[in-house]
Structures
1.
Amino acid sequence: MDIRQFAVEETGALELVSASDVPLIGDDGQPMVIVLYGPGSKQYAKAQAAQQNRMIDKLKRKGKSDQSAEEKAREQADFLAACTQDFSANITYEDLKGEALYKAVYADTSIGFIAEQVGKYIGDWANFTKRS
């Protein structure tokens, strides 16, 4: 049996929920959805390698891995943005588009539950299993 039949999908779609676990619906009446690259994708592997390289560079420069909460949040936002393929059209933040939009949403602590959902979602291989 070819083991590759158990391969996961490259992307998965996360329907966002609020901090009180209520589905987030846009003005258009549609769910707010983020399409994410999963742990089996090249994009995820590249984002993870970049995250690890930043940590190694920091250790080389400072000899320690201490970082401020702001630095940690920014790095997490960078990682999640690199793992994001797209936001549904009903997700807006100021007039930002693309990667700038993703980073702004993920870095905003007032809506930190979104970055937390995204992090949990991409950390679970089951979210990327092939549908029958």
2.
Amino acid sequence: MDCLGPRLVVAGTHSGVGKTTVATGLMAALARRGLQVGAAKVGPDFIDPGYHGLATGRPSRNLDAWICGAEAVAPMAAKAGSGAAVLIVEGVMGLFDGAAEDGETASTAHVARLLDAPVLLVVDAAALSGSVAALVHGFRTFDRSVRVAGVVLNRVGSEGHEVMLREALAPLDVPILGVLRRDDRLAWRDRHLGLVPVVEQEGVVRDSLERLASIVSGACDLDRVLALAGEARPRTVSPLPPAAHVARVRVAVAQGPAFSFVYPDNGERLEEAGAELVPFDPLEDAALPPGVSALYAGGGFPEVYAEGLSANRGLLGDLRARIAGGLAAWAECGGLLWLARSLDGRALAGVVDATATMTDRLTLGYRRARVLRQCPLGAPGTELRGHEFHYSTVTPEGDALALESRFGRGTAGFAGPTLLASYLHLHLASRPDLAEAFVRCAARTTLSPPQDSDSRCESGAGAPL
């Protein structure tokens, strides 16, 4: 059994109020005190957890009640906080905003209820004075099952502005646990509605986190933050069932600046199933690691590094030959682009017979999926849940998965018995069966690689460059 100990959810009134600044700053400030700090993020996200990990020195976990199921949230949170003095959970969007069909599932409020955790509400006070009271009052009373137990005021303009805000909030008897002034040092460089991945600028981020820790230590009452987290009742939870050991295989895992979007749970599930994960950098390595029988290429920003990826002709040629020879391959989003024929005219692997193009239109959201073609993660009919987040398109879109969201239905992705390449990001914390299927496919193709490339990779996969 695992224990869910002191914990706190950092939420916002809406997107862009400074949740990541406050949550990551608290993590960094508490860690600098010498505390072990657990970290987690509500919903599907790869970038914020990277900052959490750098601030705490521990992996940050994604708590997604839609993809993984509500019953998985507490066990995942307990894993994130294992051995820590406190678990800080960063919310998503506004406190009550959910991206699922009902508009509430997987919201920050939903996860806070599942964790029975107090909420620290971040308010952008830049253009507020007396109205801050109405705003905070509304968030505290909208849903009494969610306990908004404290406030951090962000982007406060001056000492006088702070006095007005405190006077307005005094009748509500809500603790103000921090006041952050407008400060250019708290600005984070944006890309695609989010932060730049840590892997692209780790040294710069470490310096920023040091400054952030100092600012938050001076602006927030860390002792009261810890006391608030300690008000959460301890809970004993059963860990999620692990994947069964299937076989011993070596799995090449794309990493480096272009491919940093992989949930740690996915790698752990693969290891439980028997995989030895072998990292490599598609920008630097001239060939896949020796002795591997499978490839896992997650997401990232390959478009930023398209020139370097295209120039690595030795690796691209090895990749095509190895997949044609039976290498099991699972590619998500950025991995799909890397396996495509080209990206914005730059030649890439050509494993998937499709061309990729960057656009100015964001495609994002949760997706239900049903496997239509045999692939390394399962037989036709296998049900999946995941999410998409991309500014690119591929032509053709493929027909390996039947996709459904709250906004429509369609087909997409490319598959064959040893290949799955799609935009869909999967989280395997509550799906050990998918890890087992992938390792089983890798072991099977290692023992008996198929000879007919046309039968392996349908929907255009396996086409020459």
3.
Amino acid sequence: MFKLERVIIGDHIVFRVSGRIEFEHVATIERAIAGENGPTALDLSEVTLVDRDVVRCLARLKNAGVALENCPAYVRQAIRRSRRRR
């Protein structure tokens, strides 16, 4: 089950993501982040699974300055692999 929760921590907006993130959730995540001004982060500590499209989305967001907090090792590795393929 996918869940996205918006939390304000100091002057940062953090979106806590939990569950499985699939292609159908990418637009929801991107819309939520696009609607914010200032420092934004995704807390991925409760993510259980991501698909290939989500990895591409996370890589784009990271390149755009969105912090990926508590990112599982397998997701970090997938992002690195996707960057090398380009």
